[in-house]
Amino acid sequence: MSKKPLIVLFNYGGGLRGIIPAVIMSEIEKTTGLYMTDMVDIFTGPSTGSILNTALNIPHPTKTNRPRFKAKFLIRFYEREGINIFPSDAFRAFRGIIHDFNNRTMKIEQLNNLLKQGHYNPSYLKKSLRVMYGKHKLSDSIKTIVIPAYNIDSEGLQTTHDDDESPSQPVHKINNLMNEGGHAVWFKNIKFTGAKNIHPPQEIELFDAVMGSTAAPTYFPCHHFKVIDKEISYSAIDGTIFDNPCMSYMGALRQHIPDDREVYMIILGTGYANRSFKSEEWNKFGSLGVVDPVNDLPLINILFHASESALMDSFADEVGENIFNFNKSLITDRTEEYPSTRLDDGSKENMEKLKNFAHMIIEEKPVFTLFCHIQKIVF
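RE: above sequence
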């Protein structure tokens, strides 16, 4: 009898556009009568994707082997909390530019405080995630979960040991290419049957891991936290800066998957927003224009997508025809019915457009046929 295939779910980042995969997963749960944790072995993905994955893996207060939340709850989460996490502020981008100018020239501390460095206040996001996750630790997740973040401060990190008497799990491995500066980090709880190279998950709260993974540059400050009972700390920013389906599989999961296990990867998107540019259009941006929110942060979008495009061929060779991508461009054939490409538009009108966009994806992709097929394989 062949071994059960592994079902990997990757949820993309994208701020409030995370309501798109929340709607898709809610429809899947409604159609199948199952929770996502009944169908999926491994949950991975950065930023708002980590919010979704973690919520779906919080155990029920009295039935600890069952999930507390359905995907439907997460739709309400974005609708209810979105406008508070990203309050309407027409001058935020302007303050960010003035703050940058002040840093380069005048360096007036009072002006820095007044401008709030262009960030949103993370207090409401912290409050809403704390209510949802409580004090649950990484080790409490119902299924395997991988939460990516980028640690900008390497001071105090553990490294690998050749000595078998020091088996503590490394935060990163020193190699002959790079042993200083920031490091990509995957916070993992690997618990699927037959997994290889397993280490105990780090003693951190899910709240801290997700706050780090969602600390999007130019939107939120980095999130600093410590590992419980250890002299290890992280200053984490958004995992989207390096993580994508290709990177997640090749860098975080492949080492744990036995050679004889078939893998299905289901990818739920938040709308493609990466644009192409003509050379003359790009050159008009100038040094600040390529990171200006008014221009949709073109350089940041490119950096987010560059590694994915570079690894796609190798990723496809590995997983083959078992990659199922449910996403749709927010740019191509754009109409007034399409939602904003912004990560932070929590207006009621835009949230309705985002939900409608999710249903467009459902109508265009055989998502339910796929999951019904997976049920036949798994059960």
